[in-house]
Specification:
heterodimer, A: about 210 residues, two-stranded antiparallel sheet, 2 strands, globular, B: mainly alpha, about 0% strand
Chain lengths: ~210, ~190
């Protein structure tokens, strides 16, 4: 349990390793698109890394990268087609960033450094933890940006075409400072992520001193 | 759309780094010194312009007639990785000096989301050949411009007294925040 916690917080792919920045900044304007992106990402990383780990002995080392990219690309395309069919609204919102999971450094990084060397079971565990850590990070940024930027929190809006109900809540009464559209603008994304990374540095620093 | 306004939009108002967040990894990774940033920018420009032209033809003459546009992502990433290899080989053979200065940045471009992003965006927007060319030159020039300016600022930051927890990446993000605010102001122009 402690190991899981450690992996999710202190080795968080986004805040600590600073990988996969594009989607983290681009799709986190509201909570819903942030967690949907996280879920898509987790599915892709688990499936592609398991497949890579299954075929690890068959793939020669000098064509590793192209083969891995093709495998990842296949799963991304499958997710794209499914989202386009069932959630066209959301698929428009995520747009090009969904396809960009192909070149996400986390997926390829884990594939090269872990899945290509370890058994299927270990890979399953590693990639699901990485995926969940990334999803949690996206959710955190999404929640902060939406609450500060528009004073709402969207649990289900585009998803309501499937689940049948909508869940968008107001968080606090408006006042002169907040909500401020700067937090949902692209510039605000940099500010929030910068502050969060500083916070994680602070947490990490504490831990090193206590050890 | 007017070609000049498309160029200005892709260069400044809809800058791919500061408003679309493409190419974040090299933006933070290689921007520690000015020369590296410039080399990265130039290599990205070469690959982006070539890749958008090639994928334009593939998309319009192969994928659309055969109705296989859902394969876009896979085909484009293959084209880009082959192209990067090809550019690397050509530079290595013919332009030794350029190759040595770009060095390790070339292979990294394959996984640079700016390249795939620009290519996908211009094909999703159904740009014509000329528009694709202008858009890819504008966006990659915008990438080079921003990464160069950013690296100059970061060189100055190295000598500044920054709070302990903000050293390194956090302060870089705050700098990017201020730059993005400045670029957001171009929208009205």
């Amino acid at each position: 349990m402690r190991k899981v916690f450690k992996k999710l917080i202190y080795e968080n792919p986004l805040f600590v390793l600073l990988l996969g920045l594009c989607p983290a900044l681009a799709v986190t304007t509201n909570f819903e698109s942030a967690y949907i992106m996280g879920i898509c990402f987790t599915i892709v990383i688990i499936l592609s890394n398991v497949v890579i780990s299954l075929f690890r002995k068959l793939i020669p080392e000098n064509v590793q990268i192209p083969t891995f990219i093709l495998i990842i690309g296949t799963f991304v395309t499958i997710i794209e087609i499914l989202l386009n069919r069932f959630l066209p609204d959301l698929s428009n919102k995520l747009g090009v960033y969904l396809s960009l999971i192909v070149v996400n450094c986390i997926v390829l990084g884990r594939a090269l450094s872990f899945a290509s060397k370890n058994s299927v079971l270990c890979t399953l565990k590693d990639s699901s933890l990485t995926g969940i850590g990334y999803t949690l990070a996206l959710m955190l940024i999404g929640a902060i940006r939406e609450i500060l930027g528009t004073n709402t929190i969207t649990f289900m809006n585009s998803l309501s075409s499937i689940t049948g109900f909508r869940a968008v809540y107001k968080v606090y009464p408006d006042f002169s400072l907040l909500p401020n559209p700067i937090f949902s603008s692209p510039a605000g994304a940099f500010l929030i992520l910068g502050l969060l990374i500083a916070l994680f540095n602070y947490l990490k620093g504490d831990r090193h001193e206590s050890n | 759309m007017n070609l000049i306004s498309l160029f200005i939009i892709s260069l400044l108002t809809e800058n791919i780094v500061l408003t679309k967040f493409l190419g974040m990894c090299p933006f933070f990774g290689t921007s520690k010194n000015k020369n590296n940033a410039l080399s990265m920018g130039i290599s990205v420009m070469i690959v982006v312009v070539l890749a958008s032209l090639i994928t334009y033809f593939i998309n319009n003459y192969i994928l659309i007639p055969t109705e296989t546009t859902y394969l876009k992502t896979i085909i484009f990433i293959l084209v880009i990785s082959c192209l990067v290899q090809l550019v690397e080989i050509i530079l290595k053979q013919k332009f030794k000096g350029v190759y040595n200065s770009l060095g390790i940045y070339l292979p990294l471009i394959t996984t640079n989301c700016a390249v795939l992003g620009i290519v996908l965006l211009s094909s999703n927007n159904d740009y014509s050949l000329l528009e694709t060319l202008v858009y890819s030159v504008g966006s990659s020039l915008g990438f080079t411009l921003v990464i160069y300016v950013f690296s100059s600022i970061r060189e100055r930051l190295e000598t500044c007294n920054v709070p302990k927890n903000f050293k390194g990446y956090p302060i870089a993000f705050i700098t990017a925040f201020i730059m993005a605010l400045v670029f957001a102001r171009y929208v009205g122009v």
